[in-house]
């Protein structure tokens, strides 16, 4: 979340404002509710949009009368308050059926209506909350987010088609498009880098320039510059080198699991092979899990669905690295296969917790 909250949203700020992101923001009541109330005239439609609370629906009709709103809230009956706060309040409504990533859709909808958001990140945190502290819940959450974002990318509301006509600027629509497409880009690229060079290395097929080749510098520069940029961002925001390593590890793990499964899930729903579903993430803090999280220890008590791809790829990279070393020593192909040898080595180092 560091990259989104402290890097991406700051970049969005000059283009129309950041997207609504889960929680931790202030939003005008009139911007969120006014259009829905005007579009949904009868009581049944309002109940489908805002739930069964009559008092809540009455209050929404008074959004331009703050004094009246204050009186209504103070005089609200305790039973009505309990109804609004209950976990089952959204049952029978449209909530959760139109989109899994409701925060993304809310931000996109409001920007399309002409509202502008402002990035505000004071030194003193304005919101405190809890997040996932174990790998299983983290990957489940990532899968749900990826599925919801890819849902948008392949729908009629794709920001590549629909966005340029709705958002304040073309660049702003491209920012929204990147958010919906990055799960696909990440899982395709990471699965490619984790398998293709390694399989070619096992079979002695060179893919990259030799060390003495001029183009070797190009590949080296791309790798070093991208990682240096990420490292600079992490260190400039007060984090440590270990934080950078952990972010690299999490990025790899999510790309080969959450982004893959989320993207596949979205395409299956699009083809009618699967119904949309919403599984909330468990954010209850377990003392032992919290200790391991604070120590930076990965908890691999996760589903086989997530663990199997990670372990399989690490084994493939270890095998290809061993074969590459042997080929370099006995056949003398170290110069020719140096980059292909470095790729599995880097994967092994970054994913050492899986081996451990």
Features:
mainly alpha, 356 residues, 0% strand, single chain, 2 domains, 62% helix
Give an overview of the whole structure.
The chain is an all-alpha fold. The chain folds into two domains: 28-95, no CATH class; 165-355, no CATH class. It has helices at 2-12, 29-39, 43-50, 54-60, 66-74, 78-85, 102-112, 135-153, 170-202, 215-236, 241-256, 258-270, 287-295, 304-330, 338-350, 352-355. Helix 8 crosses helix 12 (258-270), helix 9 (170-202) packs across helix 11 and helix 9 (170-202) packs across helix 15. It starts with a helix and ends with a helix. It comes from Malus domestica (Apple). One of its GO terms (cellular component) is endomembrane system. This is Glycosyltransferase 2-like domain-containing protein. InterPro entries: Cellulose_synth. It is found in: Endomembrane system.
Q: Could you write a compact summary of the structure shown?
A:
This is Glycosyltransferase 2-like domain-containing protein. With 356 residues, the protein is mainly alpha-helical.
Spell out the blueprint of helices and strands.
Layout: H1 2-12, H2 29-39, H3 43-50, H4 54-60, H5 66-74, H6 78-85, H7 102-112, H8 135-153, H9 170-202, H10 215-236, H11 241-256, H12 258-270, H13 287-295, H14 304-330, H15 338-350, H16 352-355
Q: Characterize the largest beta sheet: strand count, sense, and whether it forms a barrel.
A: none
Counting DSSP E segments of at least 2 residues, the number of strands comes to 0
Oligomer: single chain
* Poorly predicted parts: none
Distance between the termini: 26 Å
Helix content: 55-70%
Average pLDDT value?
80
Number of helices: 16
The helix-strand sequence is: HHHHHHHHHHHHHHHH
- Count of the domains: 2
Strand content: under 5%
Structural class: mainly alpha
Gyration radius, to the nearest Å?
A: 24 Å
